[in-house]
Design goal:
about 230 residues; 4 helices; 11-stranded mixed β-sheet
């Protein structure tokens, strides 16, 4: 992980693909524990370190994760995420679909009804409302392209299970490496080419505007296709 922002109330880190944000049945050390240890060692904190998990990223996804360092920040951040006051931007490398994709400043809105299958840990997208389905909305635009792949910038308008992965697959553009949602082959490191690139919000305590970006993955395709 890499710390990209920290103050007395929050810490934002860029996680690597393969890291889990919070403990699960695998028993692997979660990112939350790594961050706690970082705080303890860096600031010479005695005893237990408080750290609140306010959101998660799927294990194969890389990029920004926001944690709360105080109970006050945790309560307020939880409310902000629930109310849509935290704006997250993702970058996704998808399999190129013909020549209809061109780099543009204009966003296209995508809407589906998603049904989550708990046993499969997978969501399914439908064009019409279904029983137990939740409306999913996002916006995307093309910001880069190579001969075989397209780089999309995605802004979530709702927060559904595997929403970006599922919706992009439903429009015929699975994320590179995402076998679960239709990619043709896996990435060598087990990642999927989805990056939580930017997060913007008003600080829950200081009320300052916070806007931070994650570094681009150390990967030749990411470096070649990114508009930097």
């Amino acid at each position: 992980m890499q710390v990209v922002y920290e103050d007395n109330h929050i810490i934002i880190v860029s996680k690597e693909s393969g890291e889990i944000v919070q403990g699960d049945k695998t028993g692997d050390i979660p990112l939350s524990e790594t961050v706690k240890q970082y705080i303890k060692e860096t600031h010479a904190k005695p005893g237990n370190v408080f750290l609140g998990v306010v959101h998660r990223l799927d294990r194969p996804v890389s990029g920004l994760v926001v944690f709360a360092k105080t109970s006050k920040a945790l309560t307020r951040l939880n409310n902000m995420f629930r109310d849509g006051d935290v704006h997250k931007t993702y970058w996704a490398i998808v399999e190129k679909r013909g020549e209809r994709f061109v780099v543009t400043d204009e966003f296209t809105t995508l809407e589906h009804w998603l049904v989550r299958n708990e046993k499969q840990n997978k969501s399914y997208a439908y064009d019409r409302e279904k029983p137990n389905a939740k409306l999913a909305k996002l916006r995307y635009r093309v910001i880069g392209a190579s001969e075989r792949y397209t780089l999309l910038e995605v802004q979530l308008l709702t927060g559904r299970h595997h929403q970006i992965r599922c919706q992009l697959s439903a429009m015929g553009c699975p994320i590179k490496g995402d076998l679960k949602y239709g990619a043709r082959r896996s990435n060598p490191d087990g990642s999927i080419s989805l990056l939580a690139r930017r997060v913007e919000f008003v600080h829950p305590v200081s009320k300052e505007n916070i806007c931070v970006e994650a570094p681009i993955p150390d990967d030749n395709l990411w470096k070649a296709i990114s508009p930097l």
